[in-house]
Structure formats: C-alpha cells, structure tokens
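During the reporting period the student researcher (J.K.) took over the structure-prediction task from the postdoctoral fellow and processed the backlog of single-chain submissions. One of the processed entries is reproduced below for the supervisory committee.
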Amino acid sequence: MTETHRDLLSAAFSLILIALAAFVMHRFFLPLIWAGILCVATWPLYERMRRRFGQHDVLAAAALTLLMLALFMVPLALGVTQAARQAPELASYLVTANTEGIPVPAVLQHLPMVGDWISDWWQATLNQPHGLAHLLSEHEFNGLHSASDLIKIAGAGFMHRAMDFGLAFLCLFFFYKDGAALSAQIHAIGSHCVSEERWAHFAAKIPTAIRATVNGLVLVGLAEGVLIGIAYALAGLHSPAVWAAVTGILAIIPFGAPLAFLTAAAILASQGAMAAAVAVAVWGSIVLFVADHFVRPGMIGNATRLPFLAVLFGILGGVETLGLVGLFIGPVIMVLFVTLWYEAKLFDDGRPVATPR
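J.K. obtained the following structure tokens:
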C-alpha cells in the first residue's frame, strides 16, 4: 500500500468517525451551541472568577454557571408563574375563539384609511368558525376540542425546551472547567488542517464577534425596552414595567419588539384610548427602526470592523436560516467571510494590515 493510499484511508476513517459522532449527537447540537456562545461571551468574567477562587477551575466554573443560571431563571420563573396562572383562561379563550370565531372589534372600523380593509379581512378569517386554526396552524389546532388539549401540547413543548435548557447549562459548566484544554485542542486541529498563522488569524476573530454580537443584541434590546416602556407609562397602560420587560426581552431579537408594543397598542385601542395607541405604535416603530438599522449594527460593526451591510445581513440572515441561535452565528460567519475576502491584503508581503471598513 502506497503512502497516498494510506493517507486517503486515514482521511476516510476520520470522516466516518466524525459523521458517526455527529449522527449520535445531532439531537444535542443546539444546547451545545448555546453553551459555547455563552461560554465565549462570558470567558473574561470566568477568568476573573477563577483568579478570585485561587485558580480552582471547578469552583470558579460552578460559581459562574450558577450565576448565569440565576440570571436566566429568575425572570423566566416569574414569567412562567404568571403564564401558569393565566394558562387555563387563555386556553379556554383560544378554543372558544377557534370554535365560534372572534367578532370584529368595533374600534377597527373607525381606523382611518385601513379600517375597512382590516375589518373585511377579520370578517373573512378570524370571525369564521375554525378561522384561527387555519390562520395559525391547520394541523395543531383543528384537532383541539378542549382547553386541556391545548395545555397538553404547550406542556410537552415546554418540557422539551426545559431539557435543552438544562443540558445547555450542564455543558456550560464543563466548557468553563475545561475551556483552556478545549481551546488548545481546537487550535491544534485547526493548525494541522491549515497553516498555523492562517488559523490563528481566523480564530482570533470568533470570540470578538460573539462578544460584540451578545453585547449589541442584549444592551440594545434592554434600551428598547426602557424607551418603549416610558411610552407605556405615559399612555396609561396597565403594568407598564411588566410590558417594558417583555418588550426588552423580545427586542433582543431583531424586529421582535413589535409583537409587544403593537399588542400593547391594540389593548389601548380596545379600551378606547386611540390617541395613546397610535402614539405607542408610532414611537415603538421609530425606536425599533433606529435601533435595529443603525445602533445595533454600529455597535457590532465597530467591535468586529465589519461593514454595515455585513452586520445587518449577518443578523437577519442568521435568524432567517438558523432561528434564534442564528443571531449569534450569522455575524460570526460574516466576520470570517469578510476576513477571507480581505485575506490577500491582510497578508500582502507578509505584513498584516487593517481590514477596510
């Protein structure tokens, strides 16, 4: 057997093992990715925690994992508790609305320009029996005959997400504890596959991109919640702080905030406060447009040295193709792509130069 044949068999053997491992673990890719993103984003905090604990990896990893878990669990527990109280009433309403239809609200008929169009659409869809089922999901709603059926479906989905949530934080603990060794092994594999200099250049971009994306999404989302929350309070919406918190969480996802502030505007309109409803909708749209088109791409672009369009397409394209996790994967991919695009300049004459903006 020649050396070339031996190399081909060795490569085939490696690829088969990788494919088998991916097949066995494919169900757990999402928790692993979330844990990896959170680990990279908070790694500087882990290093400070590790120094505080006297270089004890296990104690530092456990402490930071519990801290991150608390940051997620406290607001989540409050939200789940509130949702559990309202679940039976909401489920009964959805089943009744699906069976009998939802009457057209009188306020819609008085909206300028679009009132007649919205009323006609509502009459043809939501006002019809099983119209809600056809609008949302023909397969999930048509078979429902009671509120308990809806609660069972929601409960099964919640348990599935809860298992992924627990696995993500379990992985996060081990990523913290063994992060240095894992990073060294990834670096060794990458350097073996491509040149060490090229791998180091690309690998250095990933942590910066992830941290910039996390900061841009979270900070901008919370700022949107505060600004739109002020409008809720001025408009006289009930529990404006709760609505502001929900808006801030949804605003982490680009264009997720409208689900909150348009719902709030609809509630205000149903109560007869049309001026307040229009003001909330307009102000929310302005804040959303500025934040998602200028502030958020600017924060991420300044840290990653990405052009504006690359940031925007990375975020939006990532969400479109990969779902929520694509918020963070998309910009990383665009960073690596732009680095590849300018690679000839970056290593012209062996001297790295700054990436053009």
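The committee noted the following: The chain has two domains: 1-120+132-193, 195-357.
J.K. will present the remaining backlog at the next meeting.
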